[in-house]
Specification:
By secondary structure, the protein is α/β, with parallel strands linked by helices. The chain has helices at residues 16-23, 36-44, 59-72, 101-107, 110-126, 157-173, 204-220, 246-256, 271-274, 279-289, 303-318, 324-347, 361-369, 404-410, 425-432, 448-460, 489-500; strands at 25-26, 48-51, 77-80, 131-132, 177-183, 225-228, 262-264, 294-295, 371-372, 383-388, 415-420, 437-441, 465-468, 480-483. It is 41% helix and 11% strand. It has a 6-stranded parallel sheet.
Length: 502
């Protein structure tokens, strides 16, 4: 008998238990083509693959990549973290053609949200992607939240609920499964679960009236998947984070809310899990708690990770720590979603892009989301100073943002510079010279250094234009104040048009 890597013998490598363990994994990989190991694992039972910015160079390349995977398994789930707005993988190197959730919430037109999600879904489907880890249904009740912010439709529970439902409907109308996140709600946290384990200390009545309302709406809208959050909610489970909690995943989501679709974990390599339970034990506990799919691959993206998790699940079943029926049920739910996406792909007629206006629905939505403090006079040859905070991991630092490039395309002679933490108004004025300053910020209310530089800049040069591309919580300041409700490329374009008088 031949013994393969990680203790699995050749005779049982393709048995039902091993195939089920592979079926519940959603791993990532490196490169813009599917590596041989990934294709081999898909052939052996892996039913889903996760894509990140590193895997995408162009729509044509992405379509070729997904075709490669489908040649191995026709119903493979190809998942992506494409929220539009600040969190984009399709357009990771240039910025998104769509505004994000906060901008859509600011417009508060559910038909627009539905159409934006449908157009985004059309583009994903065209590239062969059929599961989107979106939308974020989190209510942004804590304005100091370091990881949600503009990814939420807003701080109003019912607004977030109606737009979550509209987004789910639009995305799935294009044949792409929605994965509503981060259950039971990540909005009232002040810690990023990429780094540590956040907790939400509110009572059950508050959770029911606030956090859970958008998830109920998503379930009613037919969301095909829900993603769990790595957060501790003591009112629901005092010891385990939601991803690992039977009370939250099975008791609340399955039984109380009546959800029957796929439950996916957030990335298991995030420190909230990896740094406390470890990914192997965490994955076993998650499946035992009621999760059906293990997302891993943002940071760990190799075959060894897949084999470690496969073998941990197989061993847990054989040792009696994980009921085989629970693993089989999870794998069946994954396969059921895979079957739905194949049917949806066959049923979806290839549609033309939705046009909200000549430039497209994304820019039209971004324009509608902009709020301006006063009538604007066109600015000639300005200097754009971008006060840049450190990006959170979900957004990433590889995606450009701001208004400098868009304004330069509209106004000849535009200059620009990026000013990180520690920069002062004097530094900006020295670089700008006599030109009108356009100060671009992101969540100025969360960054004292940014607010101080901005106050000093406006005091020294009252003609300064201020563009807030995060959550607009700080008081408007400057001769002209523009809130874009997001930092995607089209949000920058919408702000640049106002500054240029275009």
């Amino acid at each position: 008998m031949t013994v393969l890597a990680h203790g699995v013998t050749a005779s049982d490598a393709n048995d039902d238990l091993t195939r089920d363990a592979l079926a519940v994994l959603q791993p990532g990989f490196e490169g813009t083509a599917a590596p041989a190991w990934l294709l081999r694992q898909v052939g052996e039972g892996l039913t889903a693959v996760g894509l990140f910015g590193r895997n995408i160079a162009s729509p044509e390349q992405l379509a070729a990549l997904t075709a490669q995977l489908r040649a191995e398994r026709d119903d493979v789930l190809v998942a992506i973290d494409e929220e539009g707005g600040d969190v984009t993988r399709l357009e990771v190197r240039g910025g998104s053609s769509f505004p994000g959730n906060l901008a859509l919430g600011a417009v508060d037109d559910t038909a627009l949200t539905r159409d934006v999600a449908r157009e985004l879904g059309r583009r994903l489907a065209e590239c062969g992607v059929n599961l989107n880890w979106a939308p974020s249904a989190d209510v942004n009740s804590n304005p100091d939240n370091p990881v949600i912010g503009v990814r939420s439709f807003g701080a109003d529970t019912h607004l977030a609920a109606r737009h979550t439902a509209a987004y789910v409907e639009g995305l799935q109308a294009a044949g792409v499964a929605a994965c509503t996140k981060h259950f039971p709600g990540h909005g009232d946290t002040n810690v990023d679960s990429h780094h540590a384990l956040p907790r939400i200390d509110v009572d059950l009545d508050t959770l029911a009236a606030r956090e859970l309302v958008p998830f109920r709406a998503a379930i009613e809208a037919g969301t095909k998947a829900v993603m769990s959050a790595h957060i501790l909610v003591p009112a629901l489970d005092p010891t385990r984070p939601a991803t690992l909690s039977p009370q939250i995943l099975t008791g609340l989501l399955r039984k109380e809310l009546g959800y029957e679709g796929l439950i996916v974990t957030d990335g298991m390599e995030m420190n909230a899990i990896a740094g406390t339970y470890g990914i192997e034990r965490g994955s076993v506990l998650a499946i035992a708690a009621g999760a059906d799919a293990i997302c891993v691959g943002g940071g760990l993206a190799d075959e060894a990770t897949v084999l470690r998790l496969r073998d941990a699940l197989v061993a847990a079943v054989r040792e009696g720590a994980l009921p085989q029926e629970r693993l089989a049920d999870a794998a069946a739910r994954v396969r059921a979603l895979a079957a739905w996406t194949r049917q949806a792909r066959a049923a979806a007629a290839p549609g033309a892009p939705l046009e909200g206006s000549a430039p497209g629905i994304g820019l039209e939505a971004a324009r509608r989301a902009v709020v301006v403090s006063a009538a604007a006079a066109p600015v000639s040859a300005p200097y754009v100073a971008t006060l840049a905070p450190v990006a959170n991991i979900a957004v990433g630092d590889e995606t450009p943002w701001g208004v400098a490039a868009e304004l330069a395309a509209l106004v000849p002679g535009t200059g620009s510079g990026v000013f990180p933490e520690g920069a002062t108004a004097a530094d900006i004025l020295a670089a700008a010279g006599e030109r009108t300053v356009v100060a671009v910020v992101r969540d100025a209310h969360r960054h004292p250094w940014m607010a101080q530089a901005l106050d000093a800049l406006v005091a020294a040069r009252p003609s300064t234009v201020v563009v807030e591309m995060g959550v607009p919580r700080a008081e408007p300041r400057g001769a002209l104040y523009i809130a874009t409700h997001g930092a995607s490329r089209v949000c920058g374009r919408a702000a640049a048009e106002i500054i240029a008088g275009a």
